[in-house]
DNA sequence: CGAAGAGTAGTTTTT
DNA sequence: CTACTCTTCG
């Protein structure tokens, strides 16, 4: 532990900001600080909260923490993502926000559907833009009225109107979205003194990871949680701020110094991860950015080998070449597959790579990408669970009512929707009251009321379970209290019987070919297993489980099996991780830095400014990518790339020149041309036999 | 109402 | 090339 790390850990006199460069032992400082608080300073674990941005980071933190701390002292400690923490807060304080305890947590898909319904357009770009606008407004704590007042052009006005409709819909659904998980707690802490006092006296020390990624909302949340006492440690690196598109603002770093004049600033500049060659390139690159706090990273791990820069003919050739080079490198370096990572800008780039790797039988795993919980069959089942927990969740109602097909179609839903709007009901309530009304033919209303009765039957099953949330004295600790064990049927048993009753398996095999159907059914079974596991592990009620699922990005099983595979990952998803050998691909103008479409509504200067910010963020992204590498770094770019259905010419990224790198003579395209990838592939195959 | 077929648009990053 | 949408037919 170096001097700076030690002082960061031991500093407890007030607010503390640790500027931790890439690989400078950031997580180490946080975990040791928590351990220090618990074991040396006598802090009660229930009074300490550590917040991260990703589930992965939270998991790693508690993992590493438990390696250096007595388990008994950790009891009641909170290490979670901002969003999970916000969810827990909301569950406890739901009554102050007119939210019922079973409120739904909508994911991005659900919220997009609401927006689409209101806008009545299928223009995907527009929909995304509006969704983004709404999210940014929420994250900046701008309410509907303010948004409308600030709208200067028709496009913004339409977005603001949609914002209004969107918020109203969420309220009607008794649902919150991701942004609300932080926004609502922040607003409640602002407006309700009693709640504020309670939380401020409950939390004695707060730690925040990746502080540079906080948005205005999260800042406010944090500020109100720590109160005047201001006992917190924020750890971050302004050079690694790569989420400003999500509302994160580096301004928060400056604001911290302004709001807390007594703020203790500690810089961690020694890098323990990479060889000097890699670090120098990273430093040289990031020097092109305007930085808030200057940092000079250094390491004593030696100079290291040269950074390879390789031009490729096409994205296909790049993928094949990477596959070959991975095989060769593993052999030459006597390394494991898990020592290698291939990083890229966009998820779609994984496609070609996967193909190439499969051809060479190279084991790989893709991080990020499509989430397990995004698969249609999983969403089907979850729709039922969501509906059980909250019958006002219209989105869940529609999905559950129409899957599997039970004779409720577009037309019936339209009529039902109108009927519901007329009376100010949810779809569920409307369906409940539809028998006897003459809005639908008896055949349809029978099916609907049959469906409603079915849902109610299962609701009763779950309701008979101890409803944890009703307890008035619910606290952080007791939220996880064991569910009444005297009930005859476990939640997962009930879910299993529900799935059987809707004949989901049969429906799958009916609607799809044997192979895909089997896979889907397997996923459903996996979901049930996972639910069972969660129920056993954490004693969560169905409600809490369902709410939590929206926050799970991937199947969290990776920790038990430790696959020896090459990691394929977006640079974003690789943040915080490190690999001995990194291949950074697609380093081209237009892709990295990525250039999206420019906004027509902006003036020329505004557009130029936005563009400048964009480039800086992309540069930080490149910086993050580079600094993942410990020993060797390989950068490649393509002369041409398939995009949509045409081949477009590409230029090497300006970042390559900014780092002062030139193509590596040994691996230049001369060799690429003299021997085709296919030939090299078969050569290598022969070699490997 | 729902399934099968034809046509068409599409690519940033994520809790 | 593929994944999704819209259309048409039973």
Overview of the structural elements:
Helix content is 52%, strand content 11%. It starts with a helix and ends with a helix. The chain is α/β, with parallel strands linked by helices. The protein is globular. A six-stranded parallel sheet has the order 3-2-6-7-1-8, sandwiched between helices. The protein binds a DNA duplex (15 and 10 nucleotides) through α5, α19 and α26.
Regions with little confidence, pLDDT below 50 for 5+ residues: 466-487, 666-674
Reported for the largest beta sheet, the result is: 6 strands, parallel
Counting DSSP H or I runs of 4 or more residues, the number of helices is 30
What global shape is seen?
globular
With strands numbered from the N-terminus, the spatial order across the biggest sheet is 3-2-6-7-1-8
Rg value: 27 Å
Find the count of extended strands (DSSP E, 2+ residues).
Answer: 16
How much helicity do the residues have?
Answer: 40-55%
Assign the structural class, choosing from mainly alpha, mainly beta, alpha/beta, alpha+beta, or little secondary structure.
Answer: alpha/beta
Strand content: 5-15%
Write down the overall mean pLDDT. 84
Instruction: Tell me the span between the first and last alpha carbons.
Output: 47 Å
Short key terms for the protein model shown above:
689 residues, alpha/beta, six-stranded parallel β-sheet, 30 helices, 52% helix, globular, DNA-binding
Could you give the topology of this structure?
Blueprint: H1 3-10, E1 16-20, H2 26-39, E2 48-52, H3 55-68, H4 71-74, E3 78-81, H5 82-93, E4 104-105, H6 108-119, H7 124-139, H8 144-150, H9 154-173, E5 175-176, H10 180-191, H11 193-202, E6 205-208, H12 216-226, E7 232-236, H13 251-259, E8 264-268, H14 276-286, E9 308-312, H15 315-333, E10 340-344, H16 350-359, E11 364-366, H17 376-389, H18 394-402, H19 410-423, H20 427-432, H21 442-463, H22 491-501, H23 504-511, H24 514-538, H25 542-549, E12 566-570, H26 571-574, E13 579-584, H27 604-626, E14 629-638, E15 640-643, E16 646-649, H28 654-658, H29 669-674, H30 677-688
Parallel strand pairs: 1-7, 1-8, 2-3, 2-6, 4-5, 6-7, 9-14, 10-12, 10-13, 11-12, 13-14
Antiparallel strand pairs: 15-16
Helix pairs in contact: 1-2, 2-3, 5-10, 6-7, 6-9, 7-9, 8-9, 10-12, 14-27, 15-16, 15-30, 17-18, 17-21, 17-25, 22-24, 23-24
The structure holds a DNA duplex (15 and 10 nucleotides).
């Amino acid at each position: 532990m170096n001097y700076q790390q030690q002082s960061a850990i031991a500093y407890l006199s007030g607010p503390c900001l640790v500027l931790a460069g890439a690989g400078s032992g950031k997580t180490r400082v946080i975990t040791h600080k928590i351990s220090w608080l618990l074991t040396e300073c006598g802090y009660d674990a229930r009074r300490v909260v550590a917040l991260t941005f990703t589930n992965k980071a939270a998991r790693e933190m508690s993992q590493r923490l438990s390696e250096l701390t007595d388990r008994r002292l950790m009891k009641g400690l909170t290490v979670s993502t901002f969003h999970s923490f916000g969810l827990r807060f909301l569950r406890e304080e739901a009554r102050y926000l007119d939210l019922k305890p079973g409120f739904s947590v909508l994911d991005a898909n659900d919220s997009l559907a609401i927006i689409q319904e209101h806008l009545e357009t299928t223009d995907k770009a527009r929909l995304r833009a509006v969704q983004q606008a709404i999210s940014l407004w929420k994250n900046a704590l701008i309410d509907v009225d303010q948004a409308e007042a600030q709208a200067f052009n028709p496009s913004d006005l339409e977005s603001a109107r949609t914002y209004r409709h969107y918020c109203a819909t969420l309220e009607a659904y008794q649902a919150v979205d991701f942004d609300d998980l932080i926004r609502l707690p922040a607003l409640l802490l602002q407006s309700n003194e009693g709640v504020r006092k309670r939380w401020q006296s409950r939390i004695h020390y707060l730690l925040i990871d990746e502080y540079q990624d906080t948005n205005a909302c999260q800042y406010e949340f944090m500020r109100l949680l720590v109160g005047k006492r201001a006992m917190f440690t924020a750890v971050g690196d302004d050079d690694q701020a790569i989420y400003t598109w999500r509302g994160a603002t580096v301004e928060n770093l400056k604001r911290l110094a302004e709001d807390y004049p007594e703020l203790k600033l500690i810089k961690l500049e020694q890098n323990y991860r990479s060889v000097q060659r890699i670090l120098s390139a990273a430093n040289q690159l990031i020097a092109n950015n305007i930085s808030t706090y200057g940092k000079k990273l250094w390491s004593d791990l030696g100079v290291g080998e040269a950074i390879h820069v390789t031009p490729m003919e096409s994205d296909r050739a790049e993928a094949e070449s990477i596959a070959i080079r991975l095989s060769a490198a593993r052999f030459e370096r006597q390394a494991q597959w898990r020592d290698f990572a291939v990083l890229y800008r966009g998820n779609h780039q994984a496609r070609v790579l996967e193909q190439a790797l499969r051809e060479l039988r190279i084991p790989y795993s893709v991080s990020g990408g499509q989430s397990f919980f995004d698969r249609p069959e999983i969403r089907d089942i979850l729709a039922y669970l969501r509906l059980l927990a909250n019958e006002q969740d219209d989105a869940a109602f529609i999905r559950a009512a129409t899957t599997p097909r039970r004779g409720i179609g577009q037309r019936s839903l339209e009529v039902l929707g109108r009927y519901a709007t007329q009376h100010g009901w949810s779809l569920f309530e409307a369906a409940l009251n539809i028998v006897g009304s003459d809005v639908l033919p008896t055949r349809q209303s029978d099916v609907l009321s049959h469906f409603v009765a079915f849902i109610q039957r299962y609701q009763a099953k779950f309701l008979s379970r101890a409803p944890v949330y009703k307890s008035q004295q619910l606290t952080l600790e007791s939220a996880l209290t064991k569910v009444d064990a005297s009930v005859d049927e476990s939640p997962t048993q009930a879910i299993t019987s529900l799935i059987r009753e809707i004949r989901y398996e049969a429906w799958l095999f009916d609607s799809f070919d044997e192979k895909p159907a089997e896979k889907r059914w397997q996923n459903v079974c996996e979901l049930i297993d996972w639910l069972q596991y969660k129920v056993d592990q954490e004693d969560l009620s169905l409600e809490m489980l369902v709410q939590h699922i929206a926050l799970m990005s991937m199947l969290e099983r990776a920790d038990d099996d430790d696959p020896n595979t090459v990691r394929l990952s977006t640079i974003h998803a690789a943040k915080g991780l490190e690999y001995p050998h990194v291949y950074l691909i697609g380093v081209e103008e237009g892709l990295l830095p990525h250039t999206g479409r420019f906004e027509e509504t902006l003036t020329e200067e505004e557009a130029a400014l936005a563009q400048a910010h964009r480039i800086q963020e992309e540069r930080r992204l490149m910086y993050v990518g580079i600094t993942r590498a410990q020993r060797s770094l390989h950068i490649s770019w393509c002369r041409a790339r398939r995009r949509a259905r045409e081949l477009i010419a590409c230029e090497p990224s300006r970042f390559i020149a900014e780092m002062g790198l030139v193509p590596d003579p040994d691996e230049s395209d001369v060799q690429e041309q003299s021997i085709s990838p296919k030939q090299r592939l078969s050569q290598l195959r022969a070699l490997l036999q």
